[in-house]
Amino acid sequence: MARAIWTGSITFGLVSIPVGLFTATDDHTVHFHQFQRGTSDRIRNQRVNERTGEEVDYGDVVKGAEVGDGEYVVVEQEELDQIAPGRSRTLDITDFVDLADIDPVYYQRTYWLAPTGDEYRKPYALLREAMMQGDKAAIGTFVMRGKEYLAAVRADGAVMALHTLHFADEVRDPSELDNVPTRRTKPGDKELKMATQLIESMSGPWKPDQYRDTYRDRVGKLIEDKKQGKEIVTEAEPPEPTEMSALLEALQRSVEEARGKKSGKSGGRSGGKSGGKSSGSRRKAS
């Protein structure tokens, strides 16, 4: 049974719907411990005074915020606790916006929302259906684990999804980037036509199940191979960047290859192999 990481109420107008917040995704990243090379000795992180080199107890550590010219303001955890927002019991909806108007760059993390009791299913379903018909998202704020979040709630099939959002001042201006094409940087007609054909030939319905984290799979295989003492091979180098003079030819060949493939698509690319070798080893943690 899924366990809610936050419980409260969605409020809009005079309507209040008790809900629970559930994680919508799992982290399947392979996590490693650290060892000293050539030994089975684990590496541990320590809090060390950089001047004396001595370890410092956690209770003797305070936070410092740099205020310029190498000076810091020291802040106690108790002082931060005093000004931290309390554990919010409400997700206050202030606006409804067109879902398509939210730039994906603002999305942070996704959660599922579900009513906390049978008696709340009807108002929950009412809000979900009303937003679905209008293709709207509800915008509001709530507090979880001592932090305030901006959130967008939308209908997603039989449930509602909540996306935590970045605040506007957290999104970097793309004008800060170098080498971004200007409006004067117009592609040639032939290249544009060929690129459009390539996109069309590679287009199809969104099927998330056909994609896999192939790097995670390779990491898992590497670990298993080293456990079994098998020979390890390395991945091929990434392809060279396409020169402008060869762009049209590369597009043409890409279109031909895309059209020649079957309708079934593979979710990932498997890298080539080269002759690099490494002896497998198995190490027992101390």
Number of helices: 5
Class of secondary structure makeup: alpha+beta
Total number of beta strands: 9
Order of helices and strands: EEEEHEEHEEEHHH
What proportion of the residues is helical, as a percent range?
10-25%
Broad shape: extended
Please state how the strands of the largest beta sheet are arranged side by side: 1-2-6-9-8-7-5
Query: How large, in whole angstroms, is the Cα Rg?
Result: 27 Å
Q: If you average the pLDDT, what whole number results?
A: 84
- The rounded distance between the terminal residues' Cα atoms is 35 Å
Spans of at least 5 consecutive residues whose pLDDT stays below 50 are: 266-286
Q: Describe the largest sheet.
A: 7 strands, mixed, barrel
In percent terms, what proportion of residues is strand?
A: 15-25%
